Amino acid sequence: EAGVAQSPRYKIIEKRQSVAFWCNPISGHATLYWYQQILGQGPKLLIQFQNNGVVDDSQLPKDRFSAERLKGVDSTLKIQPAKLEDSAVYLCASSSILDRVNKDTQYFGPGTRLTVL
Amino acid sequence: AQTVTQSQPEMSVQEAETVTLSCTYDTSESDYYLFWYKQPPSRQMILVIRQEAYKQQNATENRFSVNFQKAAKSFSLKISDSQLGDAAMYFCAYRRSTNAGKSTFGDGTTLTVKP
Q1: Which of A98, B75, B86, B100 has its CA 20 to 30 A from that of B114?
Q2: Which of A17-55 are b and which e, b meaning 16 or more Cβ less than 10 Å from the residue's Cβ?
Q3: Contacts B104 to A, Cβ<8 Å
């Protein structure tokens, strides 16, 4: 079974530029998550989708961050414009309540390391 | 709001010995999940072990086991017969069991394994 795919793996941009990250979850997983992980800290949930609907985006800085999951499969997270404090690893994860072995457990992608100069 | 606290930023263990990583959490819910994740330097987060709060029996996965104390809201991870490949950052995570359950992670414990 293929895992969660993310691209790009690394991105370097200057402040005020825009950037987009892509995530393809495990096939059949209805729930998709985007996390921000700042160096030395645990992941912080930015947004959670159930199919193509938003379940929780309470910690998403909506003035600059946006995310979509139009067809209920892959997802894009965008930052526009980027700030220095956005430098972090952006993790995508997916889960399924139908997972027989680990019901509702999140499986993570490799992450995208963003550096804002 | 739920919080997860890992009070040990760093731990070290000698190869083949046992180490315990601590985690406490705060919640008013009665039904939830608890997880330990491992994040090696490559940064891929991997599930180590999972516990459902309604189960009294502590979860075990090979050399990894937990001590789940629901009343004390404590969820520690024990790694037996530590191996060099166990070196990583370990995160404790909490999640409500509802369909829209939000996950909360601790800030992690960096485990060093000495040969």
Answers
A1: B75
A2: eebebebbbbeebbbbbbbbbeeeebbbbbbbbbeeeeb
A3: 45
| Best residue in A105, A107, A113 for a mutation probing chain B (most B CBs within 10 Å) | A105
3-class SS at A15?
coil
3 state SS of A63:
coil
Identify the helix (H) or strand (E) that includes residue B88: strand B88-96
Residue of chain B nearest A55, judged by CA positions? B100
Which A-chain residues 12-31 have CB contacts (< 8 A) with chain B? none
Two structure tokens written together for B33:
């999940």
pLDDT in tens, chain B (115 residues): 679 999 999 999 999 999 999 999 999 888 899 999 999 987 789 999 999 998 888 989 999 999 999 999 999 999 999 999 999 999 999 988 776 667 899 999 999 999 9
